[in-house]
Structures are given as structure tokens and as C-alpha cells.
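Narrative of activities, Objective 1.

The group set out to show that a structural description can be obtained from nothing but a protein's sequence at a throughput compatible with the screening campaign. Below is one input-output pair from the validation batch, recorded exactly as produced.
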Amino acid sequence: MNKIPKQTSEGISFFERNLTLWVALCMVGGVLIGRFLPAVPDTLAKFEYAQVSIPIAFLIWLMIYPMMMKVDFASIRDVGKSPKGLYVTWVVNWLIKPFTMFGIAWFFFYVVFANLIPEELAKDYLAGAVLLGAAPCTAMVFVWSHLTKGNPA
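Output recorded for this entry:
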């Protein structure tokens, strides 16, 4: 009988190895719930404070918290000793991602979905996409650092 091995120092766990599948299944599940059980999102939408969804905020915190517990905040003082990672991050985050995101978003909002999205809304979406492209996601930094056995600090 083939058992899936638990995570070792040389591999990743079954859950981590199939992360794309779990994300896709959650997306499909969310769409199906929204389509066939509209009372669920309507009820969850009522739990909001200052235009922030409390259920979403809770779930994001639940996702980030375990990774945050692994961060060695004392290592911040040693960042300058090995600046290569910082340089790569700065170049990617500020010189590559915003322009790449602009190109991708422009293509989808003004070419692929041009008939479905009014031009003024496409302009707003484009600005939002560029901001998202320029903003590194802390949660994903932690996740990818964990999966690659890197140093999140």
C-alpha cells in the first residue's frame, strides 16, 4: 500500500504539493455556493465593519498567523549582511511587477473583456491591478519561503 509521506526536510507534504488543486476546489466551491446557496454570501455580507468583511478578515488572519509565528524578528538587524535578496525583491517589486501587471491587465480589460466592462470601470480596474502588482503579499512571501525552505526574514 502506497502511503503519502509526511513532510520531510527533503520534500513537501501532500497538501502543499497539491496546493493549486485545493485553491481551485475552493474557488469552484465558492462559485457553487454563490450560485446555488445565495443566502450564504448574503448572510456573510452582513458582518461588516468600516467596509471590511469580518469573515474575510478572520480567514486571512487564520491563514497568516501560523506563518508569522515562524518569523525571527531579531534577524531584521542582520538583513544588511546579505542584501542580495533585498535587491532582487526591490527590482522585481518596483521595476518588473507593476509594468507586467499593467500589460496583463490592459490586455484583459481593454481587449479580451472590452465588450463586457465599461471603459471608465476598466480604467479603475487597471489602476487597482497595477497597485496589486506593486504590492508584495506578505502571506505569499511566508508561504513560498516555507515551501522552498527559504529564509522569510
